Amino acid sequence: MIISRVILKNWKNFKDVDISLRDRVFVVGPNASGKSNFLDVFRFLRDIAKPGGGLQKAVTDRGGISKIRCLAARTFPDVEIEIHFSEYGESMPAFRYSIGIKQETRGYRLPYLTHEKVWSGNDLILDRPDKDDKKDRERLIQTHLEQINANKGFREINKYLENIVYLHLLPQLLKHPSSFTGPDLPGDPFGKGFLDRISKVNDKTRKAWLRKIETALKVAVPQFKEFNYTEESGRPHLEAVYDHWRPKAGKQREDQFSDGTLRLIGLLWSLQEGDSLLLLEEPELSLNGAIVSKIPALIYNLQKPRKRQIILTSHSTDLLNDRGISLDEILLLEPTHEGTLIKPTSNIPEIRAMMDGGISPGAAILPRTKPRNINQLTLF
Ligand SMILES: Nc1ncnc2c1ncn2[C@@H]1O[C@H](COP(=O)(O)OP(=O)(O)O)[C@@H](O)[C@H]1O
Ligand SMILES: [Mg+2]
After folding, report:
1. What is the pLDDT of residues 224-243, one digit of tens each?
2. Domain 2-164+276-379: assigned CATH number
3. Which of 237, 307, 330, 337 minimizes the number of CB atoms within 10 Å of its CB?
């Protein structure tokens, strides 16, 4: 299954969005245009659906409704999210899920549902507030998505949302997890517990996935020879062997890997893990341009057998220059006074004309994401 359409009202810097999604989506736009906020819609739904999560926690973790609701919204409207799920390669949605959220004006000022609806095909199978909700308004502070005994008819979408993965691997966190104390973040977005994730996979699968990564690293990283998983005093580690004139000196642990190597390992691992939606934040960071230019093909090859959807944000011309990317896979974010707009680049005539003239997607699209007065930056 993939998420084939997203409709947003008043979600962070998106006042009004209705956009179709392909199985591979590239989100581009200026700094602070809302790329991460767009990915956060899916993380938000995951945080509602997962065990130990729920609506209240998902909202609190984001600093409350006032942080979520669009600043450009008119007086007290609700935040609304609707997503459509389709089978891979089909356009008719198998399910639709829609919620509206508002904050109580009195008492504990908790977020509550103004509606929660689920359609299976064309049948409306959940329509809240229902008569039980009307008798007991307290019920509206929880979604049925988060309740095992209430989501039986749409468990499939609960499972899908629960398993969404977001990755924005920060190499320093992975290298020195004990230096970064404090509670772990939900879903481990920055890869602090990445080694633990590797350790939890069964031996056979882990070996197979690491061999694939090894093959890629041999191509991407000079002198790279071998890649292994080890455990020492119960702690998981990654170990690489490099060609070196002193044979013993060629071994390195993850804390000595380069940032780019670690990010590439994180990317390649995550692509193989699971079959729910994968959200990748700027996978080009710390990587050489030649490697970045191969990321779209890598994703295509690894996602195809699993029929898995991937949405990534990027600022990289190298990445978008891949000729295999079609314009309707690239979404361009355009900030306006009335919130950010999201447009498929295939709907922008100038970009299509440039592509017809032989210009690559990266060169046609990314210049539109640079600040208008960029030259003034040097005046400091
Ligand atoms: N509730 C909100 N209403 C309007 N804008 C918001 C809201 N919350 C965050 N923003 C804006 O969103 C921007 C950050 O978006 P972000 O997704 O981090 O950008 P990007 O990832 O594209 O760099 C900031 O400019 C911030 O002011
Ligand atoms: Mg961002």
Report:
1. 889 999 999 989 999 998 88
2. 3.40.50.300
3. 337
